[in-house]
Amino acid sequence: MHSRFTLLFLGVIGTLISGCFSEKAIEFRSVEHLRPENIGKETLLSMDVVIYNPNNWGCTVEETDAEFFIDGKRAGNTVLRTPTRLPANAEATIPCTVKTSITDLIKLVPAGLGALLTGKELESTTRGTVKVRKFIFTKRISFEVKQPIDRKLLNGLR
């Protein structure tokens, strides 16, 4: 009898807690401030990813596993610099680093030259997953952000 009561109690508490943490999808809005950090054997680019948390509770982005593409060509892997807090019902900027190589950057030169000479707009794509934590609960969320690369973003690479 005692174990049934304990099991029922845990079931009710679990249901209530999961109801409190019902979630809306986190929105990945844009990539900003693309700039070089280190150019060498392993080249590093910095960028900020703007995320909106539509939920009534905050959480922490703990890690990323994502790739960054320019005009469909792989530019590198995206790494979260530090865990970042996402406040409830608010937008936050997450600083990330793109680890790339000179070989990957050389593959992007024709697209970059074509954009400069013809005025063609390039598209950046960042796709992967983020690990989000709230208290003891963690979840991996898949995302894909596609946006045109504007001239202001490219000017930061000088």
Write structural notes for this entry.
The chain is α+β, with helices and mostly antiparallel strands and 158 residues long. The protein has 3 helices and 8 strands, in the order αββββββαββα. Strands 1, 2, 3, 4, 5, 6, 7 and 8 form an 8-stranded antiparallel sheet that branches. The longest helix has 19 residues, at 2-20. The model is unreliable at 6-20 (pLDDT under 50).
Key traits:
single chain; 158 residues; alpha+beta; Immunoglobulin-like; 3 helices; 26% helix
The global form is elongated
What's the helix count?
3
Ranges where pLDDT stays below 50 over 5 or more residues in a row are 6-20
Calculate the terminal CA-CA distance, rounded to whole Å. 72 Å
Alpha-beta classification: alpha+beta
Q: H/E order of the elements?
A: HEEEEEEHEEH
Percent strand: over 45%
